[in-house]
Amino acid sequence: MLSQQQLMLGLRGLYPDWQWGRDGVIDYPDGPEGLPALANWGRPEPQPDEAAILAAVERGEQIEQARADLREAERLLDERIAMYNRLRATRASTSEIGEVQDEVTELLDYITEVRNAAANAV
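User: That's the sequence. What structure does it adopt?
Assistant: Structure tokens below.
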């Protein structure tokens, strides 16, 4: 039987756009101490069996890692944009502003690359 984490990762691997509630929920038919099971399947595709979910766990882990990387890059981008705005407001040197602007450009390029890779993987 699958753990809750394997079930969630496998579903994410099979269906990257999986949404809790809309597409189904994880239920515990044997109570909170029991093993999780899919319930209320809401997708047009047939409900996957345990073997298909287990086979998709690695892909689900990759998707979750890419999403975490993207969130971190977006956080860094927000910080760099705020720094850029502060430097401009304080009339910092052109070289300081240019350095931060280069970092912003690199982060934007990285974010675009990650998003394109994710879109092509689906």
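The first helix runs from residue 4 to 14.
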